Amino acid sequence: MHFKRTETHAAWDRTLPPLAVITPGEEFTVDTADASAGQLTAASVSADVPGLDFTQVNPVTGPFAIEGARPGDALVIDILDVSVASWGWTANIPGFGLLAEDFPDPHLRVSSIADGRAELLPGVFVPVVPMIGTIGVAPPEPGPHPMVPPSRWGGNMDIRHVGPGARLVLPVGVEGALLSLGDAHAAMGDGEVAGTGVETESTVRLRVTVLQDAAPVTPIVETDARTQRTGAALATTGVGPDLMAAAVEATRALVGEISRRTGLPAEDAYLLASVAADLKISEVVDMPNWVVSAHLALSYFD
Amino acid sequence: MHFKRTETHAAWDRTLPPLAVITPGEEFTVDTADASAGQLTAASVSADVPGLDFTQVNPVTGPFAIEGARPGDALVIDILDVSVASWGWTANIPGFGLLAEDFPDPHLRVSSIADGRAELLPGVFVPVVPMIGTIGVAPPEPGPHPMVPPSRWGGNMDIRHVGPGARLVLPVGVEGALLSLGDAHAAMGDGEVAGTGVETESTVRLRVTVLQDAAPVTPIVETDARTQRTGAALATTGVGPDLMAAAVEATRALVGEISRRTGLPAEDAYLLASVAADLKISEVVDMPNWVVSAHLALSYFD
Questions:
Q1: Is the ipTM of this complex over 0.90?
Q2: pTM across the whole model
Q3: What is the mean pLDDT, run by run of 10 residues, along chain B of 302 residues?
Q4: Which chain B residues contact residue A286 at CB under 8 A?
Q5: What residue of A is the nearest CA neighbor of B196?
Q6: Strand A2-3 relative to strand A27-32: parallel, antiparallel, unpaired?
Q7: 8 Å CB contact between A141 and A125
Q8: Using CB atoms, which residue from A91, A247, A270 is nearest to B281?
Q9: Taking CB atoms and an 8 Å cut-off, how many pairs form between chains A and B?
Q10: Which residues, including other chains, have CB under 8 Å from residue B30's CB and lie 6 or more apart?
C-alpha cells in the first residue's frame, strides 16, 4: 500500500477516521509533505517566510489504524527507508528557534539535494542523513492537539536518529494507535537550533508490529549505524518544557531499559549509563516541549 | 618538566603561588590525582563512599603560570597525550548525580583497566577514552572558589572530548593565567549522569600557547577524531545553572565562531548550525553549573 502526501492532517485527534487499516508485519509506503505543506517552493525567497500560514504547518500523512493495537501496547515501527526530494528549504522563522532574539528577520535558503549531499549555501554541502521529524500516534485525551509540540505519544520529536534502519517504539494511547508521519528532513543537527532542518518531501517505507502491554513511558529509538556521527544505539527520551526534567526522564528510562534488557541491577545500570551513555538535546525549538535523548551503544545489550 | 600528582590544590584562587612558569610552546607533563584525592583505592567498597572528605575532592595539579598570558588573552592548550592508571573507580555518591532521588544509597565499582578497555562490571567492558575532567585557569574574582562547579574559566567542565589530540581554548582571567588540571577519567558519557566516570590517576602531556586579546566568552574545544562516538569537531560551550540558557550560550558562541572563521554571514551560520551541529549535555551533575556543548564538524571550517 502506498499513501499520498495529500492525505494529511494538521492536528492530532483521536476522532480522525483512518486512511487505512494496517496489518502488523506488512510493509507500507507513505509519501510525506514538507513542513510548510507546500507553501514554500524551490523558488521561494526570505520575503515569503513571514506569509506562512501556521495553521497548515507540519502536516502528517495518516492516520493509519494498526490492527490489534490497544492502549498500553507498544507500537514498534521499523523505518525501512526514507528517500528525500531533490530540494529542501531551511529557514529562520521570526519568533521561532533557539536564538529568536538574535535573529529577528526571516531568512530562507533552498538546498539542491543530489549525490548524498545538500548544498545549503553556495559551496557549503551537508551530508544527507534522511530523518522523519514528526511521527506519532493519537493521544488518548480528546483533541485537537497542535502539531508543533511533541509529547510522550511522539509527534514532532525531531530526533535526527529516526531515519533509515531505525526502530521507533511508541506507547499506544487509543484503539488502533492511529499512526501518522511527516516533516522529513534531508539533514538536521541535534537541537535543530534555528527550528528547521533541510525540510523536504519524502517517501517512507515502514513496517509496524505491536507488543502487548509493553508501552514505554516515553518513545524509544534504536538507531542505525548509518546515522551520521553516532553508531547503533538505544536511545530513550524525555519530553517536556524543562530540559533538566527531560534529562532526568530520559536517563531514568535508559537505566530502566538497561536493567530490563540485561538483568543488571539498577545501581549498576546507572553507573554504566554514567560512563558510556550520551545525553543529547534532540530538539529545543518545538515550543513548548523539548526532547532530550540518552544514547547507549546497542552492543551493551547483546 | 614533569610535575607530580602531590602538587595539588583543592580550590581556585588567583593568589596561589605557581609551581612553575611555563614558556609558550614548550611541552610539559603533569601527573594528576584521582577525583577522590587518593581517598578511594582499588580495594575500596561501597561502604567507603559516605566517608569521603569533600573538602579534598577534585584536586588539580598546579597552578602553572604561563609566560606572557594577560587578562583578555586566549590560552590555547593542546592535549598531546593522556595516559591513565591500571584501575579506576565509579560511584554513586548520595545526594550527587542526576538521579540522586532514585539512588539514595552509596554504590562503588572498581574497574581494572587494560588493553584499551575498563571492566566496569564483571564481564561488562567500556572502551577507554581518556579525558581530563577538570582543567581551568584562575578566575579574576578573589577566591577561594570551590572545585565542583565549572565556570567560564573552565574547571570541572567534564567534557569528555577534552582528551588526547584535543585543543582547548580558555579565556585568561589573571596575569599568567594560572592553569591547573586533574580529575582524569578513563571513560565518561556526555552528561556524566551518576556524577562520576571511570575516575583515575593520569599523566598528561600538553603544550600551551597564548593568543593576544582573543579570549573566548566561554571555553572552546577542538575535538579529535579519536574521541569515541564523534569525529573531529569544533565545540563551543555554555556554562551555568540553567540548561536552556547554557544551550543558548553554546549556540550563540558556535554561530559566532562559524562567522569569524569562515566569513559566512551570521544568519547563514545559524542555518548551518541548525542542519549540521549537535547539542550535547556534557555534564549535568557538577552543582550548580551544567555544561552544554555545540559541536560542528571541523571540516566546515576548512
A1: yes
A2: 0.97
A3: 94 98 98 98 98 95 98 98 98 97 98 97 97 98 96 98 97 98 98 98 98 98 83 95 98 98 98 98 97 96 88
A4: none
A5: A274
A6: parallel
A7: no
A8: A247
A9: 214
A10: B2, B3, B61, B62, B181, B203, B204, B205, B206
